[in-house]
Amino acid sequence: MKVAWAGSRHAVEVADRMACLVASDPVFRKDTRTMLSRKELFKDTLKKAAHAWKRTVELHLTEEEANLLRLYIDQPGYVDLHWVMFVPAIKGQGTEEQQKKWLTMAYKFQIIGTYAQTELGHGSNVQGLETTATFDPSTDEFIMHSPTLTSSKWWPGGLGKTSTHAVVYARLITEGKDYGIHGFIMQLRSLDDHSPLPGITIGDIGGKFGSGAYNSMDNGVMRLDHVRIPRDQMLMRLAQVTREGKYVHSDVPKQLLYGTMVYVRQTIVADASRALSRAVCIAVRYGAIRKQFGSKAGGPETQVLNYKTQQSRLFPFLASAYAFRFVGQWLKWLYTDVTQKLESKDFSTLPEAHACTAGLKSVTTSATADAIEECQKLCGGHGYLNSSGLPELFAVNLPACTYEGDNVVLLLQVARFLMKTVSQVASGKQPVGTTAYMGNIQHLMQCKSVVNTVEDWLNPAAIKEVFEARALRMAVNCAQNISKAPSQEEGFSELSPDLVEAAVAHVQLIIVTKFIEKLQEDILGHGVKEQLQKLCGIYALHLIHNERLGKLYAQVRPNAVALVDAFDYTDHYLGSALGRYDGDVYSALYKEAWKDPLNETVVPDGYQEHLRPLLKQQLKLSRL
Ligand SMILES: CCCCCCCC/C=C\CCCCCCCCCCCCC/C=C/C(=O)SCCNC(=O)CCNC(=O)[C@H](O)C(C)(C)COP(=O)(O)OP(=O)(O)OC[C@H]1O[C@@H](n2cnc3c(N)ncnc32)[C@H](O)[C@@H]1OP(=O)(O)O
Ligand SMILES: Cc1cc2nc3c(=O)[nH]c(=O)nc-3n(C[C@H](O)[C@H](O)[C@H](O)COP(=O)(O)OP(=O)(O)OC[C@H]3O[C@@H](n4cnc5c(N)ncnc54)[C@H](O)[C@@H]3O)c2cc1C
User: Which ranges carry the Acyl-CoA oxidase C-alpha1 domain (predicted)?
Assistant: First the structure.
């Protein structure tokens, strides 16, 4: 099962090696992270990042190994934005010459970059951004400016205190005309003493949800006061401004401006499956240790994992963790395929790639955030302690529902794509890829489900048909209702709640389909495929209705702990007293409690100042 989860034997081996490297290095300790002040936490992140880079260079780590190293260090920091957004933005939007110049420095960490798109006033509506980049032909420069308070850049990770450079998104103005949003490379801080360059006001936007968690990241605010940059720092793969100030389009679609977001959304699906699997691993292992109540006849107490209610709340998450993992692996393939096509100037699959990345990012991160919260409840009171690992896991993953596109905004993008596809089907065009099922419209609009028993749900063809019929009927229903509205725009707006549901149904169909396709591959190991078939059945059935699931849960229960052990997480990475591999939960909880700074003294700070006078006063009063 470890191989099925990781993707290959090689993947298991590399992941094990990197996880052990991190777990055995004292610099990467994280058990007291939630007790650090914001300043201490930030400094700790700088230390970990520098040490990680040192180890990366010393050990000549490959890209795959370095990525895993970062993953197991498990602490958001400026390096994420540098590697996952700054570098890909230059790769995707810069010319070859620009890539050579900037990436050479970025790859060696001679500069640290971030992705500065969102502003105080606008995040979702990228076309509404206000920062300006006005071309001055007299000096061959752009003047970068924040004309209003709301145009202040707001949120970029690493911007607050660390980044030396950024790809800044701004409205390009030349020859008096506004050409909309474009990307520009800007140096923000001195490479000598790290002070902000003239005209740049920059800082951190303040503490965020939860202790520890995303507070390790210096999300930043930045205002620009007529800062000049050379013309060649506009990213010029999509469009150029000539020396004379003429605006020239390239032959690539302008949507490639959003390409970095497509890339990151795809990686976020993998992050979601990992976060969900961690929460499930903690709740399942703990559920096998925790006992409450016994039989009336005075028998032994029951492991809480044996309660049917616990199983019906927890096992759909276990199944979802596997489902998201497999669809994430497929999405990575799809992204690579689209990128190769783009390189040979085939842009035909871009809309589908956008819909798949946006939709899957949205559905998997929302489900994951909800599931982590539920896993806290599934662990009872102990789940609410920081030492359970769950509060921080929740706080770190919750913003994934918002960053890289608010989940509802992204689902509306999927819905827009679906409405276009329905209208193309109506005009006789055969849909392809993840919407190919829509071509089977006659049958899917009328067919009746053949599913009657739990066993029927293990029949892949029956499952697929149900999900296809559901997704198509919801999409067609929306399209018909939109066509009755006075205008397409009004209809879309009026029906947006239904459109979001139709988009979710389509995305769930993709997840179910990719799970089924995974089961058609050669899967080695005794009983592995059978367990995955049950999990696939649970994933599909829990989305439709819960009635017949009990039988499947009973079949998964004996292997539940093994199914979470297959995630192959070290105790260091899991970071949970409840989810420990050895099950020694109670001594771990007890030991963790004594680490709290409140326990440094027996009598707390503040006793002399506030508690003692209060108690003495009450004593005096009672004697009167
Ligand atoms: C400490 C450890 C150290 C270790 C060191 C070791 C070394 C390290 C090595 C490796 C490190 C690796 C680290 C890994 C860590 C991983 C961590 C994960 C990181 C995550 C970090 C996240 C940080 C967050 C960043 C951000 O949030 S950036 C900002 C994101 N913003 C958004 O997403 C905005 C959302 N809005 C939009 O996308 C758009 O505005 C819109 C909603 C799509 C609307 O667009 P608009 O043009 O206004 O309108 P439309 O008319 O709807 O669209 C026009 C047209 O375009 C199509 N479209 C839209 N989007 C796209 C797209 N993306 N691609 C293609 N096409 C698109 C749309 O469909 C329309 O098409 P049609 O006209 O044909 O319909
Ligand atoms: C932790 C974190 C890290 C981030 N890192 C970065 C970064 O590195 N770089 C960067 O540039 N940005 C970053 N961001 C910003 C992020 O990309 C935006 O917050 C995100 O795109 C959402 O935009 P918004 O904040 O403007 O939300 P809003 O759009 O203001 O959303 C508010 C509400 O309005 C709803 N809404 C908005 N538009 C519509 C619509 N058309 N139809 C229906 N409902 C709608 C949303 O669903 C939501 O409920 C980060 C954000 C966070 C939380």
Answer: 258-419
